[in-house]
């Protein structure tokens, strides 16, 4: 049975030492030994985080990814198959290649730092996307071109090529990003130029606010620093979303962490025609805008929260829900996610998540 949603792109093994007993400065203190908690691991990256969240939400999803022929690659495939044996069927194994992994550093009362190794993804390109499988799906989601050097090279020439090949097959398209280190090759790429080339082929684009400001508003990002989230206004977000829509996106928005989710639809109904293919109503989304607050939860970890939010949004769109309900579900799935330390185990079924909202789940 063909998958309704294909999630392709980056996957990795997330290694999560329990550092909750340490202050941030203790993590980097030289010559010291500190007792920490047990280590856990899960898969990370958009293919895993968004894909497995979609699976838990009841979406018929296919995962397309690459791993190396090492123990890390075997662990990634085994972990994915623990959710459903067939979910590992389209993960390719590259010979004589290292698998990607990420060490998640998250000390007490502090946001996480990710130490990541791209591995086999250094050569990821259109040839690694199974277009035969894509041809039978309704929605194609590509995760983290920021970690795929061949895709963002030459101002996104290969990313454009991949998106065009996918879009020619007819599915709705979406992309998610990760935040590049400023001094990395990805951080030095011309992301404005890449987005201008590629967004006409991206129907839904909802990066984190930090990611998109790094790419389009670096001066504001530097000026606001740690006060970024509290500096945002609806006017600012509207103008930023309008810029993405002017570049070509149909629906644009931003994941805002503890301040929730912002979504905006194009004013051009013809640009939103893709919604009809998944049961949505272009008229409902045309000119629509919302800023939905985050739900109140006890935070165990923030790894994968943005990917979970995207999964909630895609799952709601696949059910043909109205825009406001899509925003509610995106925030709800993200909130469930951060109740667990890893990127997947906190996500609940569609019915459970919907039930929490219906029961009067309090927002921040």
Task: Characterize the structure shown.
The N and C termini lie far apart (41 Å). The strands form two sheets. Strands 5-4-1-8-9-10-11-12-13 form a nine-stranded mixed β-sheet, with helices on both faces. A four-stranded mixed β-sheet has the order 3-2-6-7. The radius of gyration is 19 Å and the shape is globular. It has one domain (46-99, 122-358): UDP-N-acetylmuramoyl-L-alanine:D-glutamate ligase. It contains 14 helices and 13 strands. Helix 2 crosses helix 12 and helix 13 (323-337) packs across helix 14. The protein has helices spanning 24-27, 46-56, 71-81, 131-134, 149-167, 191-198, 209-216, 218-224, 228-231, 234-247, 282-285, 305-318, 323-337, 350-358, and strands spanning 5-9, 12-17, 39-44, 61-68, 91-94, 101-105, 113-117, 139-143, 172-176, 204-205, 251-255, 261-265, 289-292. The chain is 36% helix and 18% strand. The longest helix is centred in the middle third of the chain and has 19 residues, at 149-167. It has 364 residues and is an alpha/beta fold. The model has no long low-confidence stretch (mean pLDDT 94).
CATH class: Alpha Beta
Runs with pLDDT <50, length 5+? none
Main β-sheet, spatial strand arrangement: 5-4-1-8-9-10-11-12-13
Main sheet record? 9 strands, mixed
Order of helices and strands: EEHEHEHEEEHEHEHEHHHHEEHEHHH
**CATH 2nd-level architecture:** 3-Layer(aba) Sandwich
């Amino acid at each position: 049975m063909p998958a309704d949603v294909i999630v392709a792109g980056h996957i990795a093994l997330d290694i999560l030492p329990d550092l909750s007993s340490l202050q941030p400065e203790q993590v980097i203190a030289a010559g010291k030994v500190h007792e920490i908690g047990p280590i856990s691991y899960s898969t990370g990256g958009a293919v895993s985080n968004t894909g497995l969240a979609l699976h838990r939400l009841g979406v018929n999803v296919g995962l397309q990814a690459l791993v190396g022929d090492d123990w890390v690659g075997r662990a990634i495939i085994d972990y994915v198959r623990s959710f459903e044996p067939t979910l590992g069927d389209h993960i390719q194994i590259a010979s004589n290649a290292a698998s990607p992994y990420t060490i998640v550093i998250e000390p007490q009362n502090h946001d996480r730092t990710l130490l990541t190794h791209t591995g086999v993804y250094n050569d990821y390109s259109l040839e690694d996307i199974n277009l035969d499988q894509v041809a039978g799906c309704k929605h194609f989601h590509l995760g983290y071109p920021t970690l795929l050097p061949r895709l963002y090279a030459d101002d996104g020439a290969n990313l454009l090529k991949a998106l065009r090949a996918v879009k020619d097959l007819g599915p709705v398209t979406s992309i998610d990003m990760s935040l590049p280190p400023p001094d990395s090759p990805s951080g030095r790429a011309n992301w404005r130029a890449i987005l201008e080339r590629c967004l006409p082929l991206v129907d839904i684009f909802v990066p984190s606010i930090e990611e998109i400001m790094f790419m389009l508003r670096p001066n504001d990002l530097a000026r606001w620093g740690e006060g970024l989230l509290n500096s945002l206004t609806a006017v600012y977000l509207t103008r930023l979303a309008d810029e993405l829509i002017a570049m070509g996106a149909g629906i644009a928005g931003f994941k805002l962490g503890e301040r929730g989710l912002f979504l905006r639809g194009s004013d051009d109904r013809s640009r939103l025609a893709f919604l009809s293919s998944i049961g949505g109503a272009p008229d409902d989304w045309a000119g629509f805008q919302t800023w939905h607050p985050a739900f109140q939860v006890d935070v165990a970890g923030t790894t994968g929260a943005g990917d979970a939010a995207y999964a909630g949004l895609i799952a709601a769109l696949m059910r043909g829900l109205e825009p406001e309900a899509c925003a509610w579900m995106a925030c709800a799935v993200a909130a469930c996610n951060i109740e667990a330390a890893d990127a997947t185990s906190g996500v609940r079924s569609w019915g459970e998540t919907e039930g929490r909202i219906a029961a009067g789940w309090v927002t921040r």
